[in-house]
Design goal:
single chain; 228 residues; alpha/beta; Rossmann fold; 8 strands; binds adenosine-5'-diphosphate; binds cytidine-5'-diphosphate; Cytidylate kinase; transferase
Length: 228
C-alpha cells in the first residue's frame, strides 16, 4: 500500500510525541513534532523581544526564522534546529512553555508553520503530532488519533521529564501551565485544538507506552487492510 499520513493530536503531555516517534520508527516514516516548531518560534521571539501584539514585528520576525530537524544518533531522536543552532534543550524549558501558547495563537505564525508542515508531508510517509494536524494541516490524513489522559497523570509525567532534564518544579506549577495552555490552545480562532470528527480516541492514562504505540500501529494496519 502507498505511504500514508498518521496524525496524532491532543492535549499537552498525553504522550503524543513519544508515541509518534516510535510509530514512525516502526513504519520507517518521518516524524515531525509540530509543537517543537511553535516552541522554536517562541524562543526566537523571546530572544529578540518581539512584541506579540505588533503584527508587523511578528511578520518581519517570521521572515528571519528557519526551523529544521536533525537526527541525533545518541538520543535516537530528532533535534530542533533554529537558524542553524541546536535549540532542542532550550525549547523544552518552562519559560518557553509559559509563552508558547500565546505565540501559537497568532494567526500569521500558524499559517507560516502549517504551510511548512504541509510541505513536509507532501510525499506522505509521515507521522505528525500536534494540536491541529488532523483538522487543519492534513484533514485527509488516513489515520487520525485524538489522545487524552487525566490531568494529574499528565502533570506527573511532565514533572518527571523536567526533573530528568534538571528542572525541579512544583507539581502545582506544572498543572497550572498545562491547564493554561490547554485553554488557550482550545479557544484560539485559528486552528484550535479540537478532536477531528473522524479521529479515534486514545486515553493513555492507564496504558504503557508500548500499548499506546501498538494501538496506533493497529489503526495503521486496519487502514492498510481496508485499502488493499
Ligand atoms: N503511557 C505512558 N506512561 C508513562 N509515561 C508516559 C506515557 N506516555 C508518555 N509518557 C511520558 O510522558 C511525558 C510526556 O509525553 P510526550 O510524548 O512528550 O507528550 P506530548 O507530546 O503529548 O506532550 C514524557 O516524559 C513521556 O516519556
Ligand atoms: N500543532 C500544534 C502544536 C503545538 N502547538 C502549540 O505549541 C505548544 C507546545 O506544543 P508541544 O506539543 O511541544 O507541547 P507539550 O504538550 O509537548 O508540552 C502547545 O501548547 C500549543 O500552544 C500548536 O498550537 N499547534
Amino acid at each position: 500500500m502507498p505511504k500514508i499520513i498518521v496524525a496524532l493530536d491532543g492535549f499537552s503531555s498525553c504522550g503524543k510525541s513519544t508515541t509518534a516517534k516510535r510509530v514512525a520508527a516502526k513504519l520507517h516514516y518521518a516524524f515531525v513534532d509540530t509543537g517543537a516548531m511553535y516552541r522554536a518560534v517562541a524562543l526566537y521571539f523571546h530572544r529578540n523581544q518581539i512584541d506579540l501584539a505588533n503584527k508587523d514585528a511578528v511578520a518581519d520576525a517570521l521572515q528571519h526564522i528557519d526551523i529544521t530537524f536533525e537526527f541525533n544518533q545518541q538520543r535516537q531522536a530528532s533535534d530542533t534546529i533554529l537558524n542553524g543552532e541546536n535549540v532542542e534543550v532550550e525549547i523544552r524549558k518552562m519559560y518557553i512553555s509559559e509563552m508558547v501558547s500565546q505565540v501559537a495563537a497568532i494567526t500569521i505564525v500558524r499559517r507560516a508553520m502549517v504551510a511548512q508542515q504541509q510541505q513536509m508531508g507532501k510525499k506522505k510517509g509521515i507521522v505528525m503530532d500536534g494540536r491541529d494536524v488532523g483538522t487543519v494541516v492534513f484533514p485527509d490524513a488516513e489515520v487520525k488519533i485524538f489522545m487524552t489522559a487525566q490531568p494529574h497523570i499528565r502533570a506527573q509525567r511532565r514533572k518527571l521529564e523536567l526533573l530528568q532534564k534538571g528542572e525541579d518544579l512544583p507539581l502545582e506549577d506544572i498543572i497550572e501551565n498545562l491547564r493554561m495552555r490547554d485553554e488557550i490552545d482550545s479557544n484560539r480562532e485559528e486552528g484550535p485544538l479540537k478532536r477531528a470528527e473522524d479521529a479515534i480516541d486514545l486515553d493513555t492514562s492507564f496504558r504503557s507506552m508500548d500499548e499506546q504505540v501498538d494501538f496506533v500501529l493497529a489503526q495503521v494496519e486496519r487502514v492498510k487492510r481496508e485499502n488493499k
